[in-house]
Amino acid sequence: MTRRLILSLTFVVTVFWLLAVGLGVVVMEEEFAEIFDGSLQDTAERLVPLVVDDLQQRDQPATSAQQLETGSSIGDAEYLIYQVRDSSGRVLIRSHDAPEQAFQAPLKAGFWKNDTYQFYTADSEDHTVFVQVADAFANRVEALHEGAMALFLPLILLVPASGVAIWVIARRAVRPVDQLRGEIETKDGGNMEAIDAAMFPRELQPIAFSVNRLMMRLRTALEAEREFTSNSAHELRTPIAGALAQTQMLIAELKESSNRHRAMQIEASLMRLSHLSEKLLQLSRAEAGIGFNDKPSDLGRVLDMVVTDFRRSMAEPGRLLLIRSPNARLIGPFSEDAFAIVMRNLIENALIHGSQQEPVEVHFDDDGAVRVVNSAPVLAPDELASIRKRFSRGATTATGSGLGLSIVDRLMGQMNGKLVLLSPAAGRNDGFEARIELPDLA
């Protein structure tokens, strides 16, 4: 918008200046014509009495124009040339640049012109002596060109200078718009504070007020949604755990295979429901914006704790490998709880969806990146993009809620990091890799 405004204003100003200069040249041409014509007439009328007096003081009449020629042939060319002629048209006196042949102008007082000269003829009182002064049109064209250049040449500097001035003024004028845009850009599920409308000009304040009202309504709706999700998940955990315990006791007491099978199906359903409630609780915490912390945290220590916790609950702890580079470190003002949720979801997905015969590798690299790699078939690009969405599980028969990667994506956004999904994994022909990158702000 700013670029279009600057270019448009510069173009319009330039066009107006060119029109003004063009109009000035037209007016200048008319004024030059009046000035030159006035000078031509004044010169001719002043020469008449001088020429008549000079002719009367001569002892004998001139026999040829050459004998009475005046002026010198040395020097610059004259702007005005003249001839003094008698009533028969014979040239009596002429300026040194005037031709020897008589002008084509008729012996009649007033202006007359041909293709080359503008003439003015003045006569004596007895109409026997005529003074004809000529001004070449080339002199007028030269003066007009010089005047036009004097008007056009400054535009070479004025156009860029005006462009710079317009750029500075336009930037200052639209700065409040940029500030308002920047304030609106920062508003998301983690930052829904009201915009200070008093800092903006009067024209932009209604927009800020409208955004604040919208943010207030959205904040209220999100808070209600988060509270409902958190309360629901939290309240469901106790009855689900109780029902699961009772079901497991029932399985231990049942002897008949058919009844035992049904009880085991109920147990599996309750475990899926427990897992879903746990994910909903994590999602509500992620929506609440828990990514950042006031104090720096050593996330490498958190990674060790998460991996150790997984190994303790696994039937085959050797399937989960932690490969840590010697100089790997990741310290910053990040929430340890949020990072633990991220790693738990990524490792859990890798253990569930990866090949059960292949290990899951957790790499902690020197650049602070954490990579979780598991063996799995290669995913198509569209499927790789879709699994980031909530409740999207892809083509798999493994159990899950489809919320893990969306929770990770949300928390990474709050921590100014990013989640990169690769299939196949880096350096392999198959497999799946989830890579998280966080800025090292130590």
TrEMBL record:
The EC class name is transferase
> Which catalytic reaction applies to this protein?
ATP + protein L-histidine = ADP + protein N-phospho-L-histidine
A Pfam family cross-referenced in the UniProt record is HisKA
Q: Where in the cell is it found?
A: Membrane
* GO terms of molecular function: ATP binding; phosphorelay sensor kinase activity
Domain named Histidine kinase: residues: 231-442
List, for all copies, the residue spans of the domain called HAMP: 171-223
Q: Which InterPro entries match?
A: HAMP_dom, HATPase_C_sf, HATPase_dom, His_kinase_dom, HisK_dim/P_dom, HisK_dim/P_sf, TCS_sensor_his_kinase
Keywords per UniProt: ATP-binding, Kinase, Membrane, Nucleotide-binding, Phosphoprotein, Transferase, Transmembrane, Transmembrane helix, Two-component regulatory system
Entry's EC annotation? 2.7.13.3
Which portions of this protein are annotated as coiled-coil regions?
A: none
Transmembrane regions listed in the UniProt entry: 148-170
Membrane topology field:
Multi-pass membrane protein
SUPFAM superfamilies recorded: ATPase domain of HSP90 chaperone/DNA topoisomerase II/histidine kinase, Homodimeric domain of signal transducing histidine kinase
One GO cellular component term of this record is: plasma membrane
Q: What is this protein called?
A: histidine kinase
* Species assigned in the record: Neorhizobium lilium
- List the top taxonomic levels of the source: Bacteria, Pseudomonadati, Pseudomonadota, Alphaproteobacteria, Hyphomicrobiales
